[in-house]
Design a protein that fits this description.
Blueprint lengths: L10 H14 L3 E4 L4 H13 L3 E3 L7 E3 L13 E3 L4 H4 L8 H12 L7 E9 L8 E7 L2 H10 L1 E2 L1 H8 L7 E6 L23 E5 L4 E5 L4 H4 L2 H17 L2 E3 L2 E6 L5 E7 L6 H5 L9 E6 L3 E5 L5 E4 L4 E5 L5 H10 L5 E3 L2 E3 L4 E2 L10 E3 L5 E3 L18 E5 L16 E9 L9 E3 L3 H9 L2 E3 L14 E3 L12 H13 L8 E5 L24 H11 L7 E2 L4 E2 L10 H10 L4 H15 L9 H16 L1
Parallel strand pairs: 1-5, 3-18, 4-9, 6-8, 8-10, 13-24, 24-28
Antiparallel strand pairs: 2-3, 5-6, 5-7, 9-10, 11-15, 12-13, 12-14, 15-16, 16-24, 17-23, 18-23, 19-20, 19-21, 21-22, 25-28, 26-27, 29-30
Helix pairs in contact: 2-5, 11-12, 11-16, 15-16
The structure holds guanosine-5'-triphosphate and manganese (II) ion (MN) (2 copies).
Protein name: Phosphoenolpyruvate carboxykinase [GTP]
Subcellular location: Cytoplasm
GO molecular function: GTP binding; kinase activity; manganese ion binding; phosphoenolpyruvate carboxykinase (GTP) activity
């Protein structure tokens, strides 16, 4: 049976929910219990309202279509509303919290007319883990409840934990699609959301409070994910001495059966989900998944960093996911999955560009138009059948390669941290930092080269868009202070116990070499296991296959058994230090990147630049 407000015994939660009810004026209030019956009933409500389509071809799977104006995170409408503007830093949008609260209260007033308010008690991280944190999301979107059910531990079991202790902490998260239904109106089968200028995705870091209004899209509306597990959690982590990161977590087993755990921060659309679920091409090695997007890491008593995945599902990008690129993701999403903005086939299945086979017959595209399938598995930009940011929401425990310890409340001890981005030149396939602080420097310069496909401004093409630690859109405080926090973390333990730090780059290009598929000099995907194997051995203290270069430690070579000859030929080139390229890189960091952070930039990072510059001059 579903729960009611009377089941909330935690006085602070109750008072806050009542305050929000008085402001938003929903027709009904339901406390989410997290049961299958409740999930099924809510999904049926969405189907009846014309918002979801049941897929005939996949067990318990449904397709939602959003409005074209509500398909992604909106950074221009995302705010870090700290009391002091300086605390938001130079890379976040800021509005004074007093002013923003007045504006948003005006929007929230009566915004849930004609709708139900759902109260979702949820836990980020395994239940009972000392690293986990609880939240309560209030939302008027059934889509949000259904997704939160998959992406978090939600419902009665979490409410019971909160009810048991009046002092139990929770992060309050208020969400509304911003589309009240007055006088018996209905959504008429149209995804509800507000106009762009009325969307606000606001974090109040001083109060650890989240207010989101006007969008139904995942990153803006599933408040446990980017808003809590990253923007608010980075602030908690700074204050409490741990790390909340935009990182995958994987378990790596070598042919001897030895295990290491690795995290990796790559900007969105740079392959975290792929690496987390990788199928190695070298015999005897195994990769298993702990998480594909977010890692929370805390020191254990032994001085090592232990990581948990705060999420319980995958919110993965669908386009480009195929049996070849990520079979394990496809299998994870075979049943009990929510698809958003994918195309629908005539026989009741989903389809997207890059799924690995052409569609047949007619398709309903993500905008709801019925069109003839294109003869190829590709479409011109803007005419895709599936939106390029179409997503699947799949339970993590359905992943064929999920590690058995993925929900261990103690977390897993991390041996290596990887950073990476899309860098067609300069950055080698892999190099290891000379020290913790050098590793922090590598995290701070993460970025991707701007291509003609990623900008409309021709003058930007070829420049580097920096996304330090891949967390630029998700850091809840001043990015310069965040760098400082990483330096401080390094002082809490010793180099032998801290994870080793590596910079990887799967994206080196040689446009003139016609043999290379896509122009990429490295095959990537499953073949990244060759790089992981070297990283594993480095973590084991193996010094047999290493050279110390000006920029850090690098492999002399890698296991190339079974690689195509043209990759064997390009390997030496991507394992070389590009001295001139690195000098330019450091100059760019010094002139265009670091000055943004002013006096918040830790001096340790400038010292690293000087040190590497010195080494390059001697190289
Ligand atoms: P978010 O979930 O948005 O944080 O992003 P993500 O880091 O999980 O990236 P996502 O899985 O969306 O990125 C996949 C993109 O990276 C696709 O375009 C893949 O084709 C590409 N990709 C992933 N791994 C590799 C690789 O090893 N080599 C190459 N060339 N491309 C890769
Ligand atoms: Mn991902
Ligand atoms: Mn992400």
């Amino acid at each position: 049976m579903s729960l009611t407000l009377n089941d909330i015994k935690h006085n602070k939660i109750k008072a806050w929910v009542e305050e929000c009810i008085a402001m938003c004026e929903p027709d009904n209030v339901v406390v989410v219990d997290g049961s299958k019956e409740e999930y099924d009933a809510l999904m049926q409500k969405c189907v009846n309202a014309g918002l979801a389509t049941k897929l005939a071809k996949k067990e318990n799977c449904y397709l939602f279509r959003s409005l074209p104006s509500d398909v992604a995170r909106v950074e221009s409408r995302t705010f870090i509303s700290s009391v002091k503007e300086e605390d938001a830093g130079p890379t976040n949008h800021w509005i004074d919290p007093k002013e923003l609260k007045e504006t948003m209260k005006g929007l929230y007033k009566g915004c849930m007319h004609g709708r139900t308010m759902y109260v979702i008690p949820f836990c980020m991280g395994p239940l009972g883990s000392p690293i986990s944190k609880n939240g309560i999301e209030l939302t008027d979107s059934e889509y949000v409840v259904l997704n939160m059910d998959i992406m978090t531990r939600a419902g009665k079991k979490v409410l019971d934990i909160l009810n048991a202790d009046q002092n139990a902490e929770f992060v309050p998260c208020l969400h509304s699609v911003g589309k009240p239904l007055n006088n018996g109106e209905t959504d008429g089968g149209i995804w509800p959301c507000a106009d762009v200028e009325h969307k606000y995705i606001t974090q109040f870091p001083d109060e650890k409070l989240i207010w989101s209004y006007g969008s139904g899209y995942g990153g803006n509306a599933l408040l446990g994910k980017k808003c809590f597990a990253l923007r608010i959690a980075t602030v908690l982590a700074r204050d409490e001495g741990w790390l909340a990161e935009h990182m995958l977590i994987l378990k790596l087993t070598n042919p001897k059966g030895e295990v290491k755990y690795v995290t990796g921060a790559f900007p969105s659309a740079c392959g975290k989900t792929n690496l987390a679920m990788l199928i190695p091409t070298i015999p005897g090695w195994k990769v298993e998944t702990i998480g594909d997007d977010i890692a929370w890491m805390k020191f254990g008593k032994d001085g090592r960093l232990y990581a948990i995945n705060p999420e319980a599902g995958f919110f993965g990008v669908a386009p480009g996911t195929s049996a070849e690129s990520n079979k394990n993701a496809l299998i994870s999403a075979e049943k009990n999955t929510i698809y958003t903005n994918c195309a629908l086939t005539e026989d009741g299945d989903v389809w997207w560009e890059g799924i690995g086979y052409p569609a047949k017959g007619k398709l309903v595209d993500w905008k709801g138009n019925t069109r003839d399938a294109l003869p190829k598995d590709k479409a011109p930009k803007g005419e895709e059948m599936a939106h390029p940011n179409a997503r699947f929401t799949a339970p993590a425990n359905q992943c064929p390669c999920i590690a058995k310890e993925w929900e261990d409340p103690a977390g897993v001890p991390i041996s290596a941290i990887l950073f990476g981005g899309r860098r067609p030149s300069t950055i080698p396939l892999v190099h290891q930092s000379l020290s913790w602080n050098h590793g922090v420097f590598l995290g701070s310069i993460v970025g991707s080269e701007i291509t003609a496909a990623s900008t409309i401004n021709a003058a930007e093409v070829g420049k580097i868009r920096r996304d330090p630690f891949a967390i630029l859109p998700f850091c809840g405080y001043n990015m310069g202070d965040y760098f400082k926090h990483w330096i401080e973390i390094g002082k809490k333990s010793t180099e032998d116990k801290l994870p080793k730090i590596f910079y990887v780059n799967w994206f080196r290009k040689d446009a003139n070499n016609e043999k290379l598929p896509g122009g990429f000099m490295w095959p990537g995907y499953g073949d990244n296991s060759r790089v992981l194997a070297w990283i594993f051995d480095r973590c084991n203290g193996d010094n047999s296959n290493v050279v110390e270069t000006a920029i850090g430690y690098m492999p002399k070579t890698l296991n190339t058994d079974g690689l195509a000859d043209y990759y064997k030929e390009t390997l030496p080139e991507i394992l070389k230090v590009d001295v001139e390229g690195w000098k330019k890189e450091l100059a760019d960091v010094k002139e265009n990147h670091y000055p943004k952070f002013g006096k918040h930039l830790p001096k340790e990072l400038s010292e690293i630049i000087d040190m590497i510059q010195d080494r390059l001059n001697k190289a």
